[in-house]
Amino acid sequence: MRATPLPIAVIGAGFSGxxxxxxxxxxxxxxxxxxxxxxxxxxxxxxxxxxxPGHLLNVRAANMSAYPDRPDHFVDWLAMREPGxxxxxxxxxxxxxxxxxxxxxxxxxLLQTALAEEAGSHRLILVGDEVxxxxxxxxxxxxxxxxxxxxxxxxxxxxxxxxxxVQVELGPYIANPWSCAFATGLRQGExxxxxxxxxxxxxxxxxxxxxxxxxxxxxxSRRGLLPLIHGATTPxxxxxxxxxxxxxxPWLLRRLRSEVEAAGAAGVSWRSVVDSLRPITLALWxxxxxxxxxxxxxxxxxxxxxxxHRMAPPVGQQIAAMIAGGYLQVRAGRIQSxxxxxxxxxxxxxxxxxxxxxAIRAQRVINATGTVAPxxxxxxxxERLIIAGLARPDRHGxxxxxxxxxxxxxxxxxxxxxxxLGPLGRGVFWECTAVPDIRNQAAQVAEGIxxxxx
Length: 454
Known about the structure:
Largest sheet: 7 strands, mixed
Structural class: alpha/beta
Shape: globular
CATH topology of the largest domain: FAD/NAD(P)-binding domain
Number of domains: 3
Number of strands: 18
CATH class of the largest domain: Alpha Beta
CATH superfamily of the largest domain: FAD/NAD(P)-binding domain
Number of helices: 13
CATH architecture of the largest domain: 3-Layer(bba) Sandwich
Strand order of the largest sheet: 10-16-11-12-13-14-15
Oligomer: single chain
């Protein structure tokens, strides 16, 4: 009698994990898939779990299909949406932008369809508990859950999304704005300080405004740069970049500027030039020596981020109105200290190009600077994998070290039967946080697992 093959575990059930699980269903035969998510809310994750209708995707709906080989899948789903969703769909000259909550419903519908199709087969099993450890066990792993249960698995995929700081409770300092109702319990007229001025800050400001907080909101970042706004684009040919020169960050930046100037002379937006780099961004990143990558992260990353990760036009208009009305103040400076007390916090910062330290008394400080290094994340699993030598941070500390095939690399080399995708691969792949990137990764990971199991 043939033994039942061990399942594959997918740890994390946001977009990344959900799509890996769906691709695996089509590739690994009768073998079961354990889709694991702490808290038991599947197919949403931090990005698409928001209930705020003003939180819009920063990618056009036309580019948000969950499947790389079916580019119109999401647009077709939108066409069949239920009445009453009109307020969550925004038609603009730059394209259609929808709320992240509505997109979460789309991903959830894909999972529900798969569950219905697999009903009775027990091939797709939802595990509503946190995975706290993976222990090597006879060529596979013992998957350990926070509740104490264990499962033997043949391998596992780390699809845990963005690594966020630990947030214990609501208080004067919010380390993780996605973990608590930070817009509640505020006193009108007393400042709220937001650390950072990127897309997370934008979401925070929108949520504070929607909660009828009267302001002011003070956003502080080192350069005081806001994400730019999507606009109508015209296709622009991919720049011709010589292989030898790709190893120099200054050369790449000069080449990009000259391309933008050429596009402008032709009446084409810089946005089209940036978008033309999408197919080669991975090659450009990996072609840079480690020292040049570090140089990019220190100096050029904020400028790249505001041009590459843009606001949907309705969001940009709201943010511009908040700034014009004094509700939102964006300041450039370096935070020196944050001292908290039961009734608020004192924030000291040195303005950019200034000598004197300034202080703001705030009722709440919200950290919107983004993710943290793997060893600092609120993940017992990542911590234990790193301690056990089964995984290690990439050379920039942005995520985990992975192979080009998404296999996790530990202290002794490639760790058999362990893969990762999405934001955990940022240091290796750089562009790996948006749906157009992750959907391709999910299909590739599933194909790699099928090859590993064959």
